Amino acid sequence: MSDKPFMPKATAVWLVENTKISFKQIADFCELHELEIKGIADGDVAKGIKAYNPILAGQLTREEIESSSTDINRPLTLNKKVLDINSEKKSQKYIPLSKRQDRPNAALWLIKNYSKLSDGQICKLVGSTKNTVSLIRANKYWNSSNLISKDPVVSNLCSQIDIQNAVDKADRKIARQKKESAKKARATESQ
Question: Fewest Cβ atoms closer than 10 Å to its Cβ: which of 60, 76, 121, 189?
Fold first, then answer.
């Protein structure tokens, strides 16, 4: 990954309009020519480009801008830790038509084998809706008679680790509820 900011000209427009950083510092940061930055300041270059705030985008911090504003020789440094855009996005996986029946089957399998899992947890694991899971649990799903319990790991809808994490979370929730109910029972006895 380069040290060049995302949308360099738009970033340069914002830096020219909103900071006291020198043209050379902006040119070096945006990897543009210093004359181009002067043109932006004069209004000759980048007339139709909307300013792009590098602080909101996580490319620069206010402290970084303030430090470079006071020291003309200090270059701006790109804030790289937030700029990893690919890891932040979670992509929805396309499920072919032939495999879509696997979701209700997997939900049925989870309901049978891990009844303590909430509908929301099952939804997340198999990629279904809460309404579908609650209908399957209540045996009121439109296709209930044709559902076949099928392991979601085999169907490649989730991993065994995901299921184990969900079960652990459900166990912790049940334990927490037991403690709270015991606490309430003790409180009513003492009154």
Answer: 189
In a domain, 1, yes or no: no
Same domain? 102 vs 186: yes
Torsion angle, CA of 144/148/153/155, rounded to 10 degrees? Answer: -90
pLDDT at 82: 47
Same domain, yes or no, for 184 and 101?
yes
Please tell me whether residues 117 and 173 are part of one structural domain.
yes
pLDDT of residue 55: 86
Which range of residues forms the domain containing residue 20?
8-87
Whether this prediction's pTM lies above 0.70 is answered by no
Residue ranges in the chain modelled with pLDDT below 50: 1, 82-84
Q: How far is CA 12 from CA 15, 113, 124, 175, in A?
A: 5, 58, 42, 55
Q: Are residues 108 and 142 in the same domain?
A: yes
Q: What is the pLDDT of residue 120?
A: 93
In angstroms, rounded to a whole number, what is the distance separating the alpha carbons of residues 105 and 141? 11
How many domains is the chain built from? 2
- Sequence-distant (6+) residues with CB within 8 A of 137 are 111, 119
The pLDDT assigned to 91 comes to 59
